[in-house]
């Protein structure tokens, strides 16, 4: 097996996708002819969006990009790689603060599957402070996330938090 079978996997929680993720995906497909985006199935009850919703948002965003395939996965990432016959993992590295977690994951994945190789890509500077957690917090508190998430994602976020703050009356 070679590293260069043209396939890379970009795993994440994507709860929800933001422009930093979009930017990393657009960069990855400049390098790899095929990219599978692996959406981690909900293991925590506190995810805002279900696995199906997160996959759907990602598919909507990349509907016009044939190099991108969106799938969900559960269990170990390395098993998902093996299932796909892939060895390359794409991860975004925003700042030094990401380094320790990413370094540990890269080495653990390689320990579990010696063929696994993690490739780090850096997003545009304007997205380096972005995280799904912050995006959710800003929307929940009534802030504006225009330009930070795809429009369809912003609409879903607003709808979700509206529902949470104004439960339907009987
Ligand atoms: O977007 P995130 O939450 O930073 O992504 C983390 C993710 C999904 C890449 C990581 O949690 C993962 O790979 N989970 C699958 C379980 C696994 O393989 N754990 C060991 C990784 S070292």
Detailed description of the structure:
By secondary structure, this protein is α/β, with parallel strands linked by helices. The longest helix has 17 residues, at 96-112. The N and C termini lie far apart (60 Å). Helix 1 links the parallel strand 1 and strand 2. The model has no long low-confidence stretch (mean pLDDT 93). It is globular. It is built from six helices and five strands. The chain has a single domain (7-127), classed as HUPs (Rossmann fold, 3-Layer(aba) Sandwich), CATH 3.40.50.620. A five-stranded parallel β-sheet has the order 3-2-1-4-5. It binds 4'-phosphopantetheine. 4'-phosphopantetheine is lined by residues 11-13, 40, 76-77, 105, 108-109.
> What small molecules are bound in this structure?
4'-phosphopantetheine
Q: In what order do the strands lie side by side in the largest sheet? A: 3-2-1-4-5
Share in β-strands:
15-25%
What is the CATH topology descriptor?
Answer: Rossmann fold
Biggest beta sheet summary: 5 strands, parallel
Provide the succession of SSEs.
EHEHEHEHEHH
Q: How many domain regions?
A: 1
CATH architectural grouping: 3-Layer(aba) Sandwich
- N-C termini distance: 60 Å
């Amino acid at each position: 097996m070679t590293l260069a079978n043209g396939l890379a996997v970009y795993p994440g929680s994507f709860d929800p996708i933001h422009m930093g993720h979009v930017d990393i995906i657009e960069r990855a497909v400049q390098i790899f002819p095929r990219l599978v985006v692996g959406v981690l199935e909900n293991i925590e009850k506190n995810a805002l969006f279900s696995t199906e919703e997160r996959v759907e948002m990602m598919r909507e965003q990349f509907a016009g990009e044939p190099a991108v395939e969106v799938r969900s996965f559960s269990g170990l990432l390395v098993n998902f790689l093996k299932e796909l016959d892939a060895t390359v993992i794409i991860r975004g590295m925003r700042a030094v603060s990401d380094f320790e977690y990413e370094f540990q994951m890269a080495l653990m994945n390689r320990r579990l599957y010696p063929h696994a190789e993690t490739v780090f890509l850096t997003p545009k500077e304007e997205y380096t402070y972005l995280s799904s957690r912050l995006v959710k917090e800003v929307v929940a508190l009534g802030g504006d996330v225009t330009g930070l998430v795809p429009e369809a994602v912003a609409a879903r976020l607003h709808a979700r938090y509206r529902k949470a703050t104004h439960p339907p009356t009987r």
